[in-house]
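Task card 7
Instruction: Convert sequence to C-alpha cells.
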Amino acid sequence: MQSVPVTKYRPLPVVALPQRQWPNRVLSQPPRWCSVDLRDGNQALAQPMSVEEKLEMFELLVGIGFKEIEVGFPSASQIEFDFCRRLIEEKRIPEDVTLQILCQCREDLIVRSLEALRGARRVIFHLYNSTSPAQRKYVFNASREDIIRIATRGIGWLKQHGQALVDAGTDLRLEYSPESFTSTELDFALEICEAVTDAWAPTPESKIILNLPATVEYASPNVHADQIEWMCTHLTRRHLTLVSLHTHNDRGTGVAASELALLAGADRVEGTLFGNGERTGNLDLVTLALNLYTQGVHPGLDFSDLPRIREVYERTTRMEVHPRHPYAGDLVFTAFSGSHQDAIKKSWALQAPNTPWDVLYIPIDPADIGRNYKAIIRINSQSGKGGVAYVLEQEFGYQLPKLMHKEIGRTINELADATGRELTPQEIHDAFVRDYIDRTSPVALGEFRTIERGSTVTCQAELTVHGRSLVVSGTGNGPIDAFVHALREAGLPPFELLSYSEHSLGSGAQARAVSYIQIKAASGHAFFGAGIDTNIELASIKAIVSALNRALGS
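Output:
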C-alpha cells in the first residue's frame, strides 16, 4: 500500500444536493424486482449453466415470484438464443411474467435479439452503451455527442425492426442503461437519458425504464443515493419513467446502496440470488427482500423455503453460499458465545404467540424462511451454561433445572477445551449421559423395592459400593426419604437433599421419567444427579445415586 499521503486514488466527487430528501424517508413498500441471474449472474460463472440448468433456475425464479426476469443475451451466442426460443416455444413463461433480454446498440445484434423474441407476450428490450469519461477516452475515443448518437440510433433501430413484433401482439417495452452511470458526469447521464426518452416517446401505459447502474461500485452508499435523487428530480418526464437500480458490490455495500437509492426515489431493482455476479457480485436480492420483511414490509417475493432455493442455486451455479451469508448461511442463526446463548434462550422463552418478533440476536424467525431451530445454539469452548442446557432441551428433551446449568456447562466446556473444536449435539448428549445417567461408581444400584404402611414407606435396595455387595433398608415419609435413610447403613458419607424436579421424556407408551436431584455433601459442596426410568419413583432413586457418585467422584 502507498504510504501517507495516498495520491494513487481519488474519491468520487460528491453531489451538490443540499436539499436531499432521502435521509428522512422510510421504505414502506417493495420495489419492482428483476432477476438477472440468467444473464449477469450466468456470465460470471466459471462454468456457465447448461440449458437444462437455466430452465431449472428460471422455474425457481418464477416460483419465488419474480415478474421480470432477464434471461440472457440472445445475440451473443447460439446457446443464449436457443434458450430464449425454448422458453417461448415450450410456453414456459407465465402470462404475468415479462421476459427481459440485454443487447448492445448495434443494428445486427438488435435484429438477432428480436428474432429470439418472436411469439413472446411481454418483453423488456434492454439496450445499453457505455457513457463514463474513462470509457469514452480509453475504449471508444468518442465525444459526448458520439455516445448520444450511439444510444439514439439504437433506439431508432429497435423501433424500426421491433414493429413487426408489436404488430404480432408483443408488448414491447424499453429499458435503457447508461453503463457505468455512477462514474459518468451527472449532467451527461441526464442528457443521454433525456435523448433516449425523446427517441422512444414513452406513454403512461408504457413507461420507459431508465436503469442507472453502479457497474463498478466506486463510492459510499450515500453518494449513490444522492446521484439517484439528483436524476429523479431532474428528469423532465419522471412520470413516464421507471428509475431502475443495478448495483454491484465492489465496496461490499451493494445492498446498502440499493436501500438508500430506493429512499432516493428509485422504483425498481435488478440483482441476483445471493449476489452472484462479476467480481464481488451483484445486488443480493434475497438479502434486500428479507431486510424489507424484517421491517414489516412484505417484499412480494416468497423465500419461505430458503434452504431449497439455496440448494437449487448451489447446484446449478456451482457456487457456495458462505456460512455467514445473511439469512441463508449455515451459521447465521448460530450463537457460540455464552452471553449470546443465554440472551437468546431467555428472550425466546418469553416470546409470546402473535406478538412482534423480539428474540435477541436473531432478527428474523428462522421458521419464516424454512430454517429450523436446531443450529441456533452450538457449543464450543466459548459457550456458556445456557447454551448447553438449550441444546439438551431442544435436541433431546431434557429440561434441566436452572441451578444445574452452571454445573453441566462447566463439564461440557472442559470437554470442548480438551477437543479444541465445536461439539456436536450428540457429543454433548453423550457427555451428559456418561457423567449423570450412566455413572455407577463407586455406588451401583441393583434391585429396589418399597412397601407402604400408612403414611410411611419402607424400602429395600441392593447396592454395590466400592465393589462390595450389600442390601440396605430404610423408612421415611416417601421413597426418596426412605432411600436416604437406607444409604446411611452402607457407611457412605452423610448428605442433605437440596432440590428435586422431574418431567416426562417423550410421550405415549414410550414415555420415560427424568428426575433431577441436588444434594449437599459433607464438604459443603452441592452436586446434581439425574436418573431416567419408566417408573418415576425409580428415576428419583437413580438420580440420588447419580448425585452421590458425582459427589464422591469429586
